[in-house]
Amino acid sequence: MEKLKKLAGQGIRFALVGCVNTLVDMGVYALLTLTPFFAAHYLAAQTISYSCGVLNSLWMNKSFTFREKKAMGAKRVALFFAVNLVSLGVSSLALYLCVDRFGLGRMAGKCVAVVCSLGVNFVLNKLLVFQEK
After folding, report:
1. Ramachandran category for residue 72: left, alpha or beta (phi over 0 → left; psi -120 to 50 → alpha)
2. 5-9, 34-38, 45-49: the lowest-pLDDT one
3. Less crowded by CB within 10 Å, the N or C end of the chain?
4. Any idea where the domains of the chain sit in the sequence?
5. Measured between alpha carbons, how far is 115 from 126 in angstroms, rounded to an integer?
6. CA gap 110, 95 in Å, rounded
């Protein structure tokens, strides 16, 4: 039961950090797509904005979500970025499908993409990057 409570707490903190990361991601994406270049190349804007959220995510998930005190080694940092690369792929695919295949607007598609990548990101971070020793 204690492990379940800890997992639930981590899930809640992960969601809160995700909200902050999403605000960073969505804000940068919205600003970029106001320019003609990124309005036409919205997947490039997606990559840049998502990367801004990832940088914030690394620090907040380590210190707040999973409450790790020790420094992360190069292998774990590389795993973190690999997990987020997979999540970026899921998110970008969802964004592309929403905008180019289903005709949603860029911001609506971005919202769907965020939801699609959330679960993948949590599970992979929990299993690969912030696993308990």
Report:
1. beta
2. 5-9
3. C
4. 2-129
5. 18
6. 6
pTM of the entire predicted model: 0.77
- Of residues 37, 25, 35, the one with CA closest to residue 113: 25
The residue-averaged pLDDT of 107-125 equals: 89
pLDDT tens track for 50-61: 999 999 988 888
CA 62 to chain centre: 14
pLDDT at 26: 93
Tokens linked to 133: 């020793």
Calculate the CA 100 to chain-centre distance.
Answer: 22
| Short-list 101, 129, 125, CA closest to 113 | 101
